[in-house]
Predict the 3D structure of the following.
Amino acid sequence: MDKVTPMDAPRHEKRPRFETGKGRLSVWAEAIHAGGELVVYIGGGDRPHVGGISLARSGGHPVSFSLPGHMDYIISSESASRISEASGSACVVICGIHIDRATPEEIDSLITNSRKCVGMLLESLRPSPREAA
């Protein structure tokens, strides 16, 4: 029998979430382990959405798609490359960050914040000294 779980139902396993920035410059990343690979969503700003998607594997170039008029693939592509190289496995990054009438400085802050989130995610993937021993 099929079972449908509402989107807002409590999850049995917490997804890692990494956040930085404040207000409309806030960005976060969530990761889902898919076997030995990762699916990552990076969202933020006033209206998180799906704007760009990138798929990458370690040692390869990312393949990216975006909705017309969206520049989110720039963040998803760079992030997918960093994550796949660091993890040694394939990953998918979905990105959607939007703020109305963004200034060039705000866009730079959103890019910086997305890079910080990916850095936090990568740090969480590193084995602890106990695990490495």
Summary: Strands lie at 17-20, 27-34, 37-45, 52-56, 63-66, 91-98.
